[in-house]
Amino acid sequence: MAAEEITRRFISHGRVQGVGYRWFVRENARQLGLKGQVRNLSDGTVETIARGRAVSLDILKKRLLAGPVHAHVSQVTQQDMEAEREFKHFEVVY
């Protein structure tokens, strides 16, 4: 039986805008086989909504905390959520 997929929302805090963070998230999420989206929020944080196996989401959170070289991630919060829509792949939203 295949592992159940869940949807999780992450909010990344710190210097995460203007440093390639969304592209970093997209590439890592795709490598982990996740579907979803990443976008900048008006308060300077970055929101990631990802769907996949819990173990892959846990790995993604660790990578979100590390971030790309020019980012400085101070915190990543998370919450499991109901899927609001079906994602076909992982994308950057503007």
Automatic annotation (TrEMBL):
EC number of the protein: 3.6.1.7
**Gene3D superfamilies, alphabetically?**
3.30.70.100
Instruction: Name the Gene Ontology molecular function terms of this record.
Output: acylphosphatase activity
For this UniProt record, the keywords arranged alphabetically read as follows: Hydrolase
Q: What class of enzyme is it?
A: hydrolase
Q: Which SUPFAM superfamilies match?
A: Acylphosphatase/BLUF domain-like
Active site residues according to the UniProt entry = 22, 40
Q: Which InterPro entries match?
A: Acylphosphatase, Acylphosphatase-like_dom, Acylphosphatase-like_dom_sf
Top-rank taxon of the source lineage equals: Bacteria
Q: Which residues form the Acylphosphatase-like domain?
A: 7-94
Q: In the UniProt record, does the keyword Zinc-finger occur?
A: no
Catalytic activity field: an acyl phosphate + H2O = a carboxylate + phosphate + H(+)
Task: Please give the family membership noted in the entry.
Answer: Belongs to the acylphosphatase family.
**What name does UniProt use for this protein?**
acylphosphatase
Species in which this protein is naturally found: Caldithrix abyssi
